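Sequence of Magnesium chelatase subunit I (Olleya namhaensis).
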Amino acid sequence: MEIKNIKILGELKKAGYKSKSIKDELRDNLIERIKSKTTVFEGVHGYENTVIPEL
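Predicted 3D structure, token representation.
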């Protein structure tokens, strides 16, 4: 069963879904955006020029 089609918690557990901490989720999303070279924080002027090079 696809995770998109799951409606109840029992189905989610049966599908083997593993939850992530918010910290892990944010880190994974940031890494994905950096790799795909999309804007990380839109509207924060200078972020791409100052913070990203340090990462």
